[in-house]
Design brief:
The protein is mostly loops. About 0% of the residues lie in helices and about 10% in strands. The protein has a three-stranded antiparallel sheet with strand order 2-1-3, with no helix packed on it.
Length: about 300
């Protein structure tokens, strides 16, 4: 098990103590650190574990961490490949550079957390709550984010190729410079978001809400806009010439200019007073003051 550099924290059930998995419990007592090693049989113990503090490059691949709480934790460059984090709480934590590929984070609480450069390729993030999270340069290719809430999240330069973002909430989010080829945004709420200079070729925006969003400089060849709402959407400089399902009513409600490229027979209107309104994401929660440690994991 990776060495823990700072105390994490708190409860653990000791029911059914037996051989089978290892627990390390560290608790700060004044200036001294106490260490206790125990054996237990219950592999679901992670559901009652809360972790904080610092653990750089932790190896937690394949672990059952269902419902675990990482409130205010610093787990930079950790490896959680294929880990089970269903319903886990990662609120306000720092997982920058960590590998969550093929992990199950369905229903996880990730509000205000930092996942800069993290890898979520093929991961399940359906129904996750990640409002105000930082996902700059994150890799989410092939990830399932259906029904997730990412309002105010920052995904600048993220990779979303082939990701399923249907019915996701991405209002007031940053999606600038992303690569989202063949991504599915159908039914998504993307109002007031920044999609400038992104690659959305062959993506689906069917029935999505893009009101007030900024598409400037984006590439949308082969993208499907059937039923999408584009009221006051900024399409100046956007290349929509190869987009599918666009109607004059949709384009007429958006705001373009001479540099907007549209399919044949469609004309953009110039809007006066078009401006980008930035809505600040929610501040991350304050980590708890008491930091004791419990780390639990099953031996394989």
């Amino acid at each position: 098990m990776k060495h823990i550099d700072a105390p994490l924290f708190r409860r653990l059930s000791t029911t059914g103590l037996a051989l089978g998995a290892s627990i390390v419990v560290l608790a700060a007592a004044g200036s001294a650190n106490a260490e206790l090693r125990m054996q237990y049989q219950d592999r679901d113990v992670a559901r009652m574990v809360s972790l904080g503090g610092t653990c750089h490059r932790c190896e937690l691949s394949g672990r059952d961490l269902t419902g675990a709480a990482f409130t205010g934790a610093v787990f930079t460059n950790a490896t959680l490949v294929g880990a089970n984090l269903r319903g886990a709480e990662l609120v306000g934590s720092n997982f920058s550079g960590s590998d969550f590929s093929r992990a199950d984070l369905s229903g996880a609480e990730m509000v205000g957390a930092d996942f800069t450069g993290a890898n979520f390729s093929g991961a399940d993030l359906s129904g996750a709550e990640a409002m105000g999270a930082t996902l700059v340069r994150a890799r989410l290719a092939g990830a399932d984010l259906t029904g997730a809430a990412l309002n105010g999240a920052n995904l600048n330069t993220a990779t979303l190729n082939g990701a399923d973002l249907s019915s996701v909430e991405l209002n007031a989010a940053t999606l600038a410079n992303v690569s989202a080829r063949s991504a599915d945004f159908s039914g998504a709420g993307i109002a007031m978001s920044n999609l400038s200079n992104g690659d959305f070729r062959s993506a689906s925006f069917r029935d999505a809400t893009l009101n007030g969003a900024r598409l400037t400089g984006g590439r949308f060849s082969g993208s499907d806009f059937r039923g999408a709402s584009l009221s006051r959407t900024d399409i100046r400089g956007a290349d929509l010439s190869g987009a599918r399902g666009l109607s004059q009513d949709q384009v007429g409600s958006a705001c373009g200019d001479a540099s907007t490229r549209l399919p044949a027979r469609l004309t953009a209107q110039v809007c006066r007073g078009v401006r980008v309104i930035r809505i600040a994401p929610p501040a991350p929660p304050i980590p708890p003051g008491t930091r004791n440690l419990v780390v639990a994991g099953a031996e394989r």
